[in-house]
Amino acid sequence: MIPAEKSKKQILLSGVQPSGNFHIGNYLGAIKQWVEMQKTHRVFAMIADLHAITIPQEPEILYKNTLGVAKLLLACGLDPKKSVIFVQSQIPAHTELGWILNTLTPIGELERMTQFKEKKEKAGVLAGLLNYPTLMAADILLYNSDIVPVGEDQIQHIELTRTLARKFNARFGETFKEPKEYVLKETSRVMALDDPTKKMSKSSANPASYIALLDEPETIRKKIQIAVTDSGKEVAYDEITKPAISNLMRIYSAFSGIGLKEIEAKFSDKGYGEFKHDLADVMVGALTPIQKRYSALTEASVKTVLKKGQKAAAKIADRTLTEAKKKAGFLAT
Ligand code: AMP
Ligand code: TRP
Predict the structure, then answer these.
(1) The motif 'KMSKS' region: which residues (predicted)?
(2) pLDDT of residue 107
């Protein structure tokens, strides 16, 4: 196995699809961890545009969203001096290894993926949608990733990645490292504000179901104000009897750093209204600096960052792919 870098740091890779409605679920479930782990890990932050097209995309919107998400990653605190920020489609090794991994993957394994089962209802069955997890496995394995911070919906895909790494290694000799998911229990499944039984989702038809990272303070306050609550009036954590308030409390806790018990104590003699008011303040306080940094970034500066990221990512990905192809018996160039 080729070490991805000379540094001894563990390698973190994760990805996010380019989309306009980047929300607090994406932030708390994934990106916030990438930013925090820059201190201890070598971070590869990928914009998964090839994954995005498994649901048809308008070209100009895809283009705009790719740059927009890159800007957001920077605004959230990813530091291009420390981390590699890159666009998936700019590294051909991903699709190439993805193809090789497809030839090791029984269709049945792909068909039983929860995300495939859910999405195929909405979009019709596209081959790309079915094969999405093998491409994701390639993303992860190319960088010898140790750890992949994601929300709960991606765990199954990382399990498949491990299976494929083992399979390839068993057949062709030790090549890939088996990665582990990193899932923060409290924020791995941020629920929709209009329905605590559904995951907060970019594709929801109701914008009041999510808080976008770029929502104006007034919009945030309004959305929190109309977020559904449970019967009763106590701010108490109980996932079964109070799923809506519990979701809001987890969000409060993640943005403020205050524990759930402390939140209960803080609002013990207060109702939902005051809690929601405070939650909106906490959120606006956390998102405003991100939004300010976002506005200050130019398209040119983002493109420069992505170009640098492409170069750094390609070096590692190409090296791993070359080794894998050699082991599998392909002619060297
Ligand atoms: P995507 O929007 O599918 O590109 O997701 C990007 C990252 O955000 C992935 O790691 C997802 O698991 C995570 N994520 C998406 N929605 C949520 C949510 N509602 N709660 C927690 N994490 C989420
Ligand atoms: N499939 C992920 C999502 O929709 C995005 C993604 C693509 C990813 N490649 C990845 C996440 C590799 C982690 C590792 O959220």
Answers:
(1) 199-203
(2) 96
Catalytic center residues: 119, 199, 202
Query: By the 8 A CB rule, do 276 and 230 touch?
Result: no
Q: What pLDDT, on a 0 to 100 scale, did the predictor assign at position 332?
A: 81
What CATH number is given to the structural domain containing 321? 3.40.50.620
| 200 known ligand binder | yes
Strand order of the sheet with strand 41-47? 84-87, 41-47, 10-16, 147-149, 180-182
Mutate-to-test residue for ligand 2 from 53, 136, 143, 144, highest number of ligand atoms within 8 A of CB: 136
Q: Rounded to the nearest whole angstrom, what is the distance from the C-alpha of residue 256 to the centroid of ligand 2?
A: 27
88 lines ligand 2 (CB under 6 A): no
The reply to whether 261 sits in an annotated binding site is: no
pLDDT at position 7 is 62
Q: Are residues 132 and 244 in the same domain?
A: no
| pLDDT at residue number 262 | 97
CA atoms within 13 A on the CB side of 170: 8
Indicate if 246 and 318 belong to the same structural domain.
Answer: no
Exposure of 220 by Cβ count < 10 A (0-12 exposed, 13-18 middle, 19+ buried)? buried
Low-confidence ranges of the chain (pLDDT < 50): 2-5
Report CA(30)–ligand 1 centroid distance (Å): 7
The answer to the question of whether 139 is labelled as a binding residue is: yes
What pLDDT was estimated at residue 24?
Answer: 97
Looking at residue 2, what is its pLDDT? 46
Residues 235 and 137 grouped into a single domain? no
Domain housing 89: 10-188+298-328
Report the residue among 147, 153, 157, 158 best suited for mutation to probe ligand 1: largest number of ligand atoms under 8 A from its CB: 153
In ligand 2, the atom with minimum distance to the C-alpha of 132 is 1
Contact (Cβ atoms closer than 8 angstroms) between residue 123 and residue 81 = no
Q: Are residues 178 and 100 in the same domain?
A: yes
Mark whether 17 and 161 lie in a shared domain.
yes
